[in-house]
Design a protein that fits this description.
By secondary structure, the chain is α+β, with helices and mostly antiparallel strands. It contains two helices and six strands. Helix content is about 25%, strand content about 35%.
Amino acid sequence: MKYILQMIVDESSWQNLSPEEMQPMIDAMEGFNDELRAAGAWVSGEGLDYSSDAKTVRVSDGNRTVTDGPYGSGKEQLGGLWIIEAENMDDAVGWAQRVPMANGSIEVRGLIPEE
């Protein structure tokens, strides 16, 4: 079954880092991605641009409006995601527990298979 691992983070901890300061985090994430690939669990994964650069399309009674910024106003935002193959939720959570991050959370959800 496929699962999505959503990395929820406070982006303010990244915004003022130099490329040299970010490189160890990038290297750690690339190492994690390599582990997923080696285990045959990798489907896809992406980091996201800062939420401050996002646009949100809101729909109410069929009417659409576009606003600047992310869908939520909280301090934490979606920072990246992986789509993985895992036997079950416990295995997917096991992968989430291995994501190399110091702060934040990983939301794990099953994807509904296309029939």
